[in-house]
Design brief:
Elements lengths: L8 H25 L1 H8 L3 H20 L3 H22 L13 H15 L10
Helix pairs in contact: 1-2, 1-3, 1-5, 2-3, 3-4, 4-5
Length: about 130
Amino acid sequence: MNLDFSSFYDVAILALRVIVAIVFFSSGRSHASDPQGRAKSIGLSPAATAVLGVAEILGAVMVAVGIFPRIGAMVLIFTMLGAIYKKIVVWKTGFYAEKGYGWHYDLILLCACLVVFALPGGIVLVIV
């Protein structure tokens, strides 16, 4: 019996793009709406935290809606590379941290963004 799951390709890619967008939009909103408070927890200045938040929001919208999704994915890839760098080099966090979050979560999001970047993308939501 030959099972063909290729018909689920579009749905799977759409699901990946939407989930990536939800995660980054939520994170970006939290950074942009309270840069002072978030800056303390991530070790950046409030201005850099606000810029990070706006970048995450824009990247998430681009990925979800399909307007320049590769550019949006690249923005999100750079945010994840920064997060992973900070956790490994600055905070000395392990892959699975005993306290707090390890960088395994960031690596999964980075890989998801790499998939979005590697695939052809386009408009997902069409306003009629």
